């Protein structure tokens, strides 16, 4: 029965990449408990657009003509390979361009951003009701690829190494519907404070289309507020909550197209971002 459930959820596995596309560029989306299987790989090439014209100073939502509208474009390459049936190796990298039309005339920044390398290991699985429940460990590391600008309105990242220790609770019904909860602790070296991420994803199929709403939250464990004496952007206490939905159209067993939308519902010292992602997915 578990093997049957795995086959029926293969389209959902491919669909999860539509919010993973921003896992490096936005640090606000998460992995699910699906694994590729030994010798199988998924490769995703995606593009994203984030924009905001309001932002949070502390927890107060404001706008400022000096900031104006900030837009960020990202190109993301994501790949996952099954080393064993219970173990995936995951890598992603992003190129990011960020610009503002505010009166402060902040310079446009563009560069290769961060490289993320992670492993996802299912260390326990058992039948539960009409489905299978799994527990997974997900250690990872995020490293800047270039010495990009990290202290500006148009900064494309925080520019430091993250050591990530996360776990995933995953439940999939025999019908293919699923729910995944990813959380853990991110040790952020340098000026940014450590973070606790929470990513909840649910999903199911409607014909050849997979629909997967998601919720993401990041809690920073310290830092300053915008406007505090001597503040800089890497040292901010940046919290956020976002919700969104991902769609995946399965063209055939080896190819698909994906898109997602997300919006910010709360935050602290962060942009009130709305964003979109589009990508092509190949199974090798």
Quick description:
The chain is mainly beta. The chain has 3 helices and 14 strands.
Features:
284 residues; mainly beta; Porin; two-stranded antiparallel sheet; disordered N terminus
Q: Can you give the mean pLDDT? A: 89
Largest sheet: 12 strands, antiparallel, barrel
Work out the helix count: 3
SSE order, one letter for each helix or strand: HHHEEEEEEEEEEEEEE
Number of domains: 1
Secondary-structure-derived class: mainly beta
Q: Provide the β-strand percentage band.
A: over 45%
Outline type:
globular
- Order of strands, main sheet, comes to 1-4-5-6-7-8-9-10-11-12-13-14
Name of the CATH first level: Mainly Beta
CATH level 3 topology: Porin
**Cα distance, first to last residue?**
25 Å
CATH homologous superfamily title = monomeric porin ompg
How big is the Rg?
A: 19 Å
**Unreliable stretches covering 5 or more consecutive residues:** 1-28
**Proportion in helices:** under 10%
Overall description:
With 284 residues, this protein is mainly β. It has one domain (2-283): Porin (Beta Barrel), CATH 2.40.160. Helix content is 6%, strand content 58%. The strands form 2 sheets. Strands 1-4-5-6-7-8-9-10-11-12-13-14 form a 12-stranded antiparallel barrel. 39% of the residues are buried. Mean pLDDT is 89; it is low at 1-28.
Write the layout of secondary structure elements.
Elements: H1 2-8, H2 10-15, H3 17-20, E1 41-52, E2 55-57, E3 60-62, E4 70-84, E5 87-100, E6 109-128, E7 131-144, E8 162-173, E9 178-188, E10 195-206, E11 209-220, E12 239-252, E13 255-268, E14 274-283
Antiparallel strand pairs: 1-4, 1-14, 2-3, 4-5, 5-6, 6-7, 7-8, 8-9, 9-10, 10-11, 11-12, 12-13, 13-14
């Amino acid at each position: 029965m578990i093997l049957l459930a795995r086959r029926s959820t293969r389209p959902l596995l491919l669909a999860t990449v539509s919010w993973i596309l921003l896992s490096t560029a936005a640090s606000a989306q998460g992995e699910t408990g699906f694994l590729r299987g030994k010798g199988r790989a998924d490769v995703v090439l995606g593009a994203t657009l984030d924009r905001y014209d309001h932002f949070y100073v502390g927890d107060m939502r404001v706008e400022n003509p000096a900031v104006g509208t900030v837009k960020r474009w990202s190109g993301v390459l994501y790949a996952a390979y099954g080393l064993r049936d219970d173990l995936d190796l995951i890598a992603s990298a992003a190129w990011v361009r960020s610009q503002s039309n505010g009166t402060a005339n902040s310079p446009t920044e563009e560069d290769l951003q961060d490289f993320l390398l992670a492993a996802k290991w299912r260390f326990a699985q058992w039948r539960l009701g009409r489905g299978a429940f799994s527990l997974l460990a997900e250690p990872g590391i995020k490293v800047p690829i270039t010495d990009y600008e990290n202290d500006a309105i148009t900064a494309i990242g925080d520019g430091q190494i993250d050591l990530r220790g996360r776990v995933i609770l995953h439940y999939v019904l025999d019908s293919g519907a699923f729910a995944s909860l990813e959380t853990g602790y991110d040790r952020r070296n340098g000026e940014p404070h450590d973070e606790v991420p929470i990513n909840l994803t649910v999903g199911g199929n409607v014909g050849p289309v997979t629909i997967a709403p998601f919720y993401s939250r990041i809690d920073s464990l310290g830092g300053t507020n915008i406007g505090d004496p001597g503040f800089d952007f890497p040292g901010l206490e940046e919290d956020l909550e976002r919700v969104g939905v991902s769609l995946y159209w399965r063209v055939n067993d080896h190819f698909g197209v994906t898109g997602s939308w997300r919006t910010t519902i709360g935050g602290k010292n962060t942009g009130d971002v709305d964003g979109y992602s589009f990508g092509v997915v190949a199974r090798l």
